[in-house]
Write a structure and sequence with these properties.
The chain is of the alpha/beta class and 284 residues long. It has helices spanning 16-32, 59-78, 93-100, 124-132, 161-175, 200-221, 235-243, 266-274; strands at residues 8-11, 36-42, 84-90, 106-110, 137-140, 150-154, 178-185, 226-232, 248-252, 279-282. The protein folds into 2 domains: 8-140, HUPs (Rossmann fold); 150-282, 3-Layer(aba) Sandwich (Rossmann fold), CATH 3.40.50. It is 38% helix and 20% strand. The radius of gyration is 20 Å and the shape is elongated. InterPro entries: Rossmann-like_a/b/a_fold, Universal_stress_UspA, UspA. This is Universal stress protein.
């Protein structure tokens, strides 16, 4: 995980959803002892405006300045002890925030900004950043509240979920929360054929062993209370259900494009859209 001297970077756009992300990021910065950097990206191409020298009366720059001032006031009121800075950058929001991940403890974005459509729960910028950035990306829905004292993390037998586990344990430690580790498995197709004998109890025991082997090393080095939830279900269904009683849902991402480029995996994408709490997508 990135050193704690690196800032938490949060995307600011002047929307209510963006302010929800600022509030979440301010709380996390206070818990983890990180500085907070507010970044507002001016995207002229989105408005069909060819780049031109910025002037004092430039409406896009003025909007960015107002959005940052409002966000900074929210941080100073909510978490006065957090060191906060702000910057305006011109470019494509998704690309700028993705690249900023290289110098951040984590990237925090709202689920949908000013450019979102009403029927889309998670906007294209949030999805792109979560699918492309290396390191943790937290997507925050409006109306979130830390009230449950539980961090949920999705696990499987792959090495890719180690980064998600590391992040989940760090979040639980700084919050004083417990962890609910969800391991979802599905029956093999041929197990549903009655003419083929299949030891389902043996399958369940094998899946339980995989979950235990993944969590035992973390239990040995952490005093965080861990509860295992090994269920026969689709991972999306299990994780979304668990998110209803969580303050944060943490998932890894195994997504790869046709040419090997990093993309957001199908489970992570579905969880982003349907989770009832903030979601952290963590890749190594």
């Amino acid at each position: 995980m990135t050193a704690m001297s690196d800032p938490i970077i949060v995307g600011v756009d002047g929307s209510a959803t963006g302010l929800a992300a600022v509030e979440w990021a301010a709380d996390d910065a206070a818990r983890r002892g990180c500085p907070l950097r507010l970044v507002c990206v001016v995207d002229r191409w989105a408005y069909g405006i060819v780049k031109f020298p910025t002037t004092a009366g430039d409406p896009l720059t003025m909007h960015a300045e107002r959005a940052l001032a409002e966000a900074e006031e929210v941080v100073r009121t909510r978490r006065p002890g957090v060191t906060v800075s702000a910057e305006i950058i011109e470019g494509l929001p998704a690309k700028i925030l993705r690249d900023k991940a290289k110098e951040a403890t984590e990237i925090v974005v709202g689920s949908r900004g000013l450019g979102g459509f009403t029927g889309i729960l998670v906007g294209s910028v949030s999805t792109h950043v979560a699918g492309q950035a290396h390191g943790p990306v937290v997507v925050v829905h409006p109306g979130w509240k830390d009230v449950h004292g539980e961090v949920v993390v999705g696990i499987d037998g792959s090495p890719e979920c180690e980064a998600a586990l590391a992040y989940a344990f760090e979040q639980a430690r700084t919050r004083g929360s417990s962890i609910r580790a969800v391991y979802a498995w599905q029956l093999p197709i041929h197990a549903l054929a009655p003419e083929i004998g299949y030891d389902l109890d043996g399958v369940r025991e094998a899946q339980q062993r995989v979950a235990d082997e993944k969590l035992d090393p973390w239990r040995r080095v952490s005093d965080v209370v861990v509860r295992e939830d090994v269920v026969c279900a689709h991972p999306v269904d299990a994780l979304v259900e668990a998110s209803g009683s969580a303050d944060l849902l943490v998932v890894g991402s195994h997504g790869r494009g046709a040419l090997g480029s990093v993309v957001l995996g199908s489970v992570s994408r579905a969880v982003l859209h349907h989770s009832r709490c903030p979601v952290a997508v963590v890749r190594p």
